[in-house]
Amino acid sequence: MTLNIILIVGIIALPMLAQLYIMSTYKKYKKVENTGKLSGFEVARKVLDANGLNDIDIVSTPGELTDHYDPRRKVVRLSTDIFDGTSVAALAVAAHECGHAVQDDKGYALMRIRSLLVPVVNIGTSLSYYVILIGFIFQLINLVYIGIGLTALGLLFQIVTLPVEIDASKRAGENIRVLGIAGAGDMSGAKSVLTAAAMTYLAGVLASALQIARLLIIALGRRD
């Protein structure tokens, strides 16, 4: 019972703490104007053009931290505060999303693998808990293991996503430096924002791993 409680606390606390960390870091550097007073849109345009990606559009999208690169439509979508903002946070996030566009253009292997996993993971994870529930209700432990295996697809996706995000941040930092679009103070703040973002993905991996461990422990207990 004690181990189960520890696992539950970890599953809940890790993503929560990571989210608090990214939000506090983001809000801190959202208030700090970057040296060049460049908007997120301007930063993104400079990074994309410098990498020969003049055909990729940059559009504003509603919400906070909803920024992403859409590889199907070849569009960088930046949340309104990032698109229009001239903060250090806007600089970092815009450059990061363009890092994904560069990955796509260069045929970055892990990004391609992640894209291939999306439909499989969506189906597997949507079915997993129904399979697990049915397995427990009818005492079909092997079915429970199948459900846990389907849940593990989500963990696999997160494990692949982590280096993709870290690589995009590295590309962002390199582009910011080479293009000279940030002062020394900007670089420090940008790194803080990108590091905090990476921590949310790491926390997600750990929380998912703990959840799978918890399900396995429960299943093994039922078998005994």
Brief summary:
The chain is mainly α.
Write the layout of secondary structure elements.
Elements: H1 2-30, H2 40-50, E1 57-61, E2 68-70, E3 75-79, H3 80-84, H4 88-106, H5 109-137, H6 141-179, H7 184-223
Parallel strand pairs: 1-3
Antiparallel strand pairs: 2-3
What does the model show?
- There is one protein chain.
- It is elongated, with a radius of gyration of 20 Å.
- Strand 2 (68-70) and strand 3 (75-79) form a beta hairpin.
- The longest helix has 40 residues, at 184-223.
- The protein contains 7 helices and 3 strands.
- The protein has one domain (2-223).
- Helix 4 (88-106) crosses helix 6 (141-179) and helix 5 (109-137) packs antiparallel against helix 6.
- With 224 residues, it is mostly helical.
List descriptors.
224 residues, 6% strand, 3-stranded mixed β-sheet, mainly alpha
Structural class: mainly alpha
Count of folded domains: 1
State the distance separating the first and last CA atoms.
16 Å
Strand fraction equals: 5-15%
The number of distinct helices, counting runs of at least 4 residues, comes to 7
What's the main sheet like?
3 strands, mixed
What's the overall average pLDDT, rounded? 95
* Order of the strands making up the biggest sheet: 1-3-2
**Helix content range:** over 70%
Task: Count the beta strands.
Answer: 3
The arrangement of helices and strands along the chain is HHEEEHHHHH
| Principal-axes shape call | elongated
Radius of gyration: 20 Å
Give start-end ranges of low-pLDDT stretches. none
